[in-house]
Structure formats: structure tokens, C-alpha cells
Amino acid sequence: MPEYEITWPYEVTWTIDLDTADPVEAAREALAIIRDPTSWDPVFTVRGNGQTFIVDLDPDHTDPSGQGTPNVTLAA
Fold first, then answer.
1. pLDDT value at residue 61
2. In what order do the strands lie in the sheet with 51-56?
3. H or E, element range at 2
4. DSSP code at position 12
């Protein structure tokens, strides 16, 4: 019988504060930042399995690929 990995649905959000003239401009500016390969803000809020975590994929600012050692904390 095959083994199955149990998975959970997770909601992952990235938050940024922007000063703009309207919500559409804010969304477009955020999208430009997300798509910019030189932009790197690797901190996410991850909710799932009844818990909320703050995940920093590059806490030492040394590995912008996101493959380094992350810092994961349980949110209050």
C-alpha cells in the first residue's frame, strides 16, 4: 500500500505598506515590487493547521534564493 504525505492548506501573505493615491495604484506598485528580481523582502505570514507563523526565508540577508536556513516563529 502506498504511503501518503499528509498536507494542510496554508494561506501565505506578504504585507507591504505603500503610500499611493488609490487602491489600484497601490496594488500595481506592490505587483511591480513582487516581480522585480532585485527586490527581496522574504518575510511571510503563514496560516494553517490552526496556527499562524512568521517565516523569514533569509534572516541573515545572505541567501536571496530563499533556500537558506529560515527563521520560523509562532505568531501571538
1. 80
2. 11-13, 43-48, 51-56, 71-74
3. none
4. E
Query: Is residue 75 within 8 Å of 46, Cβ to Cβ?
Result: no
**Contact (Cβ atoms closer than 8 angstroms) between residue 66 and residue 42:** yes
Kindly write down the DSSP assignment for every residue of 14-73, as one continuous string: -------SSHHHHHHHHHHHHH-TT----EEEEEETTEEEEEES-TTS--TTS-S--EEE
What pTM, to 2 d.p., does this model score?
A: 0.72
Average pLDDT over residues 7-18: 92
- With contact defined as beta carbons under 8 Å apart, do 11 and 52 qualify? no
Look up residue 6 and give its three cell numbers: 499528509
pLDDT band at 1; cut points 50, 70, 90: low
Under 8 Å CB-to-CB from 39, ≥6 apart: which residues?
Answer: 33
